Amino acid sequence: MTSSSDPTSTPDPGPRSPAQRRNSLVDAHCAACEGGVEVMPPETARQYLETVAKWELDESSRSISRQFNRGTFVNVIELINRIAAVAEREQHHPDLHVTGYRHLKVVLTTHAIGGLSKNDFIVAAKIDQLLD
Ligand SMILES: C[C@H](O)[C@H](O)[C@H]1CNC2=NC(N)=NC(=O)C2=N1
C-alpha cells in the first residue's frame, strides 16, 4: 500500500513554481473534448493563469486571450502558421483575429463546453513556448 505517510513512497514535491507548472503544461497533451466535461471554475482558471501570465482571463472567465504585435503582416502570418501546427497536433484550436495588419489576438476557449478547460491552458503554454 502506498500513502503519503509511507516513508518509501515518492516524496511530495511540495509547491511548484509557476515555471515548473508551465513546463508540465508544455509537456501535457490535450484530451479530445466533445462535451461532457465541466467548465473550469474561475478560481481554477486564475490559478492556471499564473503559469501563463501573458494571457488574460475574459470577464466571464470563459476564455483567455493574448495579444501580439509582430511588426508586419508577414510576421503575423508566420506566427499563425506556427500556432496552427500546435493546434493541429493537439486537436484544440484557438480563434485568431488579425487586425491592423500586424496585430494578432489569440483567443482560447473550449467550444464543446462553452468555457475553459485544461486544454486551453495546455495550448496557451505551447504557444508561449514558440516565442521563447
Ligand atoms: C474531438 C476534438 O477534440 C474536437 O472536435 C475539438 C476540435 N478542436 C477544438 N478546439 C476548441 N478550441 N474547442 C473545441 O471544443 C474543439 N473541439
TrEMBL record:
Q: Which reaction does it catalyse?
A: (4aS,6R)-4a-hydroxy-L-erythro-5,6,7,8-tetrahydrobiopterin = (6R)-L-erythro-6,7-dihydrobiopterin + H2O
Q: What CDD domains does this protein map onto?
A: PCD_DCoH_subfamily_a
Q: Which GO terms describe its molecular function?
A: 4-alpha-hydroxytetrahydrobiopterin dehydratase activity
Specify the domain of life of the species encoding this protein: Bacteria
Which InterPro entries does the record match to this protein? Answer: PCD_sf (IPR036428), Pterin_deHydtase (IPR001533)
Q: Name one GO biological process term.
A: tetrahydrobiopterin biosynthetic process
Q: What class of enzyme is it?
A: lyase
Pfam families named in the record: Pterin_4a
Keywords in alphabetical order, please.
Answer: Lyase
| The enzyme's E.C. designation | 4.2.1.96
Cite the residue spans of the region called Disordered: 1-24
Similarity comment: family membership: Belongs to the pterin-4-alpha-carbinolamine dehydratase family.
Name by which UniProt lists this protein? 4a-hydroxytetrahydrobiopterin dehydratase
Instruction: Name the source organism.
Output: Allorhodopirellula solitaria
